Each structure stands twice: as structure tokens, then as C-alpha cells.
Amino acid sequence: MTLPNFPQVDMFSAGINSLYGVLLAGQPSHNRGYTVMGLLIMAFFGGIGGGVTRDILLNDVPAPLQDPKYLLVCLLMGLLGLAIYRYSATREERFRTRTLAFFKSFSLPWFAILGAHKALDHHLGIWTAILVGLIATTAGGVLIDLFSGVTPEIVRPSEQLVTAALLASTVYTLLAVWEKGRDSFFPVTLTAVAVAFVFRILAVREHWPSIVPIPCPDENSEVVPIVAPAAGKVAHR
Predict the structure, then answer these.
(1) Where are the domains of the chain?
(2) Please, where are the H alpha helices in 122-207?
(3) Model-level pTM?
């Protein structure tokens, strides 16, 4: 199966994630008193962080270094995010959690597919392709979280971010390998996008949390000593 290039889709995904990155960095959970330049840097992290990480892993020259339009798109979307944030905090929150969440749900599977796509194009195995697809999808958000001093979203309860990325890269990789040598690239791609997109939309709409293995206590909760009447020992809750 011939694997064509996706410059337009890759650039669209970079733009959406740049906008999301600057709006996320402006939230109280992430804002560390960033300057305008600092917020624009977060936009670049969100927009091209995943793609650059993907290309470095595959020993390729990162796409933004080959095509300066990536940098221009990230800059323009970052400035748009600053304008939205300055216009109204309430509208910005609504825009980020509703409208932008919808577009991010659409761009997310494309990032995963592009990562898996390039890994297969380098004649790597199925597991490597799935892993590269996951890394390409989540690396930008991890950079924003780490620079903001926040635990990365991929290891916190979230609305199935990692699961959606894994779905997209896994479905695409398995179908691409299965259909190898046949002219069925676009049906394979659209199937993977549809599965991950529908799953992610339902997760965001219904607020499906990721599975948390062990319930964590509230950070603000106090340890209260309790004297056990029988043993006379001090317990904590």
C-alpha cells in the first residue's frame, strides 16, 4: 500500500494544537506568570512538539525545519489564542472546553495516524508504529505540562486522551499492515479517524475519566489521628 504525505493535515493539526496550547497555558492550573513570549512558546510546544519528537525518533529532519509554514501557523494561532484569552476569560474557558475540544478531538487521531504512518514508512514493526503514534500525539501536551510544573495529563485522570490516541494508531497500523499492497489507503485512514474521533467525542461529552488504579487522597485533606479502642494504637486516615 502506497503511503502518501499529509502536509495539509499535519499543518491543520499543528494549528489546532497551538491554539489549544496557549489557552491551556493561560489557565490557572498552568499559568506561572507567563509573558506574551512565554505563552507563544507554549503554543509552539503544543503545535509542533509532537511532530518534532516523532521526526527525531525516526531520524528525520523535523518537518517545521523543512517547511517554515509550520512556524507561521503556530505563531498565528498562538496570537489568536492570546486575543481570545484577553477578550474574555469566561468565553475563553467555554471556547477551550467546548469548541476547541471538538477540533482537538478531530486533530488528535490524525497526529496518531501520522506518527504510525511515518513509522511504517520507515519499515518499522507494528508495536513501534503504535508507540510512535502515541508519542506524536501526546509529546506536545507533556512539554506544556512539564514547563508549567504540572503532572502531565497522560498520567492523570483525563477524558481518555491516551486511549483515543492508542485507538487511532492501533486501528490504522493493523489495517495498514493488513491491506499492504492494496489501493485502500484512504478507507483505512478514515476508518481509524472515525473510530478514535467518535470515542474521544463521547469521552469528552460524557466526561469519561481514565481509569485510576488507586484512589488518591485529597491534597488538602488533613491527617487526623484516631485512637483504636481495642489495641490502643494510633491510626491515620
Answers:
(1) 7-209
(2) 126-147, 161-178, 185-205
(3) 0.72
